[in-house]
Amino acid sequence: MSGTVTAVSRNATYSFTKPNHESIRLLAGLGVEGDAHMGETVKHRSRVARDPNQPNLRQVHLIHSELHAELAEAGFTVRAGDLGENITTSGIDLLGLPTGTLLHIGETAVVRVTGLRNPCAQIDLFQKGVLPAVLGRDENGQVVRKAGIMSVVLTEGEVRPGDQIRAEMPAQPHEPLRPV
Q1: What are the DSSP calls for 84-104, one per residue?
Q2: Domains of the chain (ranges plus CATH)?
Q3: CA 147 to chain centre
Q4: For the chain, N or C: smaller number of CB within 10 Å?
């Protein structure tokens, strides 16, 4: 399974959206250099309030550009970085990856998929109605979270739009993605 990076984003301050950049640098064990969510321990404010010492399983947030297209069809205007993602992708089924998948991005960067992004109410503050649009239900009535995946950096490297992404699946049995 493979895909392409369509945009990269980071923000040194805590805000919902992240501006696009020509490149971002992934730092092993930390995340995106210069991003407010970079670090070994959690940086998301609600998680810090619960336990500031828990490991940061949300160092790099990836969203598929196909979600942006789906939201546009529903009447929303959402661009790369608007939902807080660091890497926007195309052509790879991020939501279909199992936990532990290694994503080789660009020449050297490698991230390990830790789970799903659990969309929160901030999404509706960005644009009213987007939260229910990034949540759905499957044929069994289970909630489907479509707001991307989270990962941790194993090997550092520069990531740029146009870089290739290659998925390396973990050993069987595969563990489905859960919110982190």
Answers
A1: S-SEEEESS-GGGSPBT-EEE
A2: 2-168 (2.40.33.20)
A3: 8
A4: N
Tokens encoding 149: 């995946």
- Is residue 99 a contact partner of residue 113, using CB atoms and an 8 Å limit? yes
Exposure pattern of 60-81 as b/e (b: 16+ CB <10 Å)? bbbbbbbbbeebeeeebebebb
Q: Which helix (H) or strand (E) element contains residue 122?
A: helix 122-126
pLDDT band at 119 (very low <50, low <70, confident <90, very high): confident
**Predicted confidence band at 91 (pLDDT cuts at 50, 70, 90)?**
very high
Of 2, 175, 24, 8, nearest in space to 104 by CA:
2
Positive or negative torsion for Cα 80, 82, 88, 91: negative
Instruction: Please say if the pLDDT value at position 16 is more than 80.
Output: yes
Are residues 86 and 30 in contact, defined by beta-carbon separation less than 8 angstroms? Answer: no
| Cis, peptide link before residue 173, omega less than 30° from 0 | yes
d(CA 33, CA 80): 18
Measured CA angle at 176 (ends 174, 178), to 5 deg = 145
For 37-63, give the DSSP string: T-SSB--SHHHHHH-TTSB-S-SEEEE
Residue 37 CB neighbours (<10 A)? 22
Q: Can you tell me whether residue 127 is helix, strand or coil?
A: coil
